[in-house]
């Protein structure tokens, strides 16, 4: 008996258990039929890849159009007075990043919004105007003390470069991701020796020099 014929009448196979068909034969027929579940399901096709990039203004730009629009916005960002006061912004290509944020999220979107940047340094002076309106989580490791604003704070400077708030003053400096919040862990650092030895790109090409890290005894940075 062929497989199609065998599985065409599963009721007869079940009846065979009651009408004298050897039990083993009937069970084999039932097993063969139950194992046939038809062809495997075809997975759904992936969604089509759009041939354009949707923007916040509900336009859909092709890749060349998006790049052209981003370059135009980036050029405008470079003309902002506050941008020109901070050479580091152009050095890291922040104007292009801001242009992409503007196209995708809207001109009013703040870069870094919804993100928390973590910093491990000397701490942070939370009363500094650069952090006005921000959520700043603080932690203190190895007996570090809070920053009070009474002396220069390396951690405050680093945190302001990363996420210092943008104010109404167009010429005031701001952080790269001024919309981000901060989580800062303070560690105790020794006082500097006031000897400035910059590390240049030439040093890096030659394998670099040892960098002094004023960390407490027993603390290492991998």
Briefly say what this structure is:
The chain is α/β, with parallel strands linked by helices and 222 residues long.
Structure explained in plain terms:
The chain is of the alpha/beta class and 222 residues long. It folds into three domains: 32 residues, no CATH class; 64 residues, no CATH class; 111 residues, no CATH class. Helices cover 36% and strands 9% of the residues. It has nine helices and five strands, in the order H-H-H-E-E-H-H-H-H-E-E-H-E-H. The strands form two sheets. Strands 3-5-4 form a three-stranded parallel beta sheet, covered by helices on one side. Strand 1 and strand 2 form a beta hairpin. Helix 2 packs antiparallel against helix 3 and helix 4 packs across helix 7. It is flat.
Q: What are the salient characteristics of this protein?
A:
alpha/beta, flat, two-stranded antiparallel ribbon, disordered N terminus, 3 domains, 222 residues, three-stranded parallel β-sheet
């Amino acid at each position: 008996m062929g497989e199609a014929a065998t599985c065409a009448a599963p009721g007869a196979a079940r009846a065979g258990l009651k009408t004298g068909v050897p039990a083993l034969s009937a069970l084999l027929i039932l097993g063969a039929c139950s194992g046939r579940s038809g062809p495997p399901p075809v997975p759904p096709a992936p969604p089509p890849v759009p041939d354009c990039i949707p923007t916040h203004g509900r336009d859909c730009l092709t890749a060349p159009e998006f790049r052209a629009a981003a370059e135009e916005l980036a050029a405008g960002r470079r003309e902002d007075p506050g941008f020109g006061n901070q050479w580091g912004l152009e050095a890291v290509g922040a104007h292009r990043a801001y242009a992409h944020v503007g196209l995708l999220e809207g001109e009013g979107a703040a870069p870094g919004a919804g993100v928390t940047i973590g910093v491990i340094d000397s701490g942070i002076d939370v009363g500094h105007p650069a952090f006005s309106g921000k959520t700043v989580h603080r932690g203190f490791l190895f007996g570090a003390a809070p920053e009070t604003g009474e002396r220069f704070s390396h951690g405050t400077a680093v945190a302001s470069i990363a996420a210092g708030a943008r104010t109404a003053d167009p010429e005031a400096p701001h952080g790269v991701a001024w919309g981000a919040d901060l989580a800062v862990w303070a560690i105790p650092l020794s006082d500097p020796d006031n000897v400035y030895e910059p590390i240049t790109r030439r040093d890096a090409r030659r394998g670099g020099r040892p960098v002094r890290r004023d960390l407490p005894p027993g603390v290492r940075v991998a």
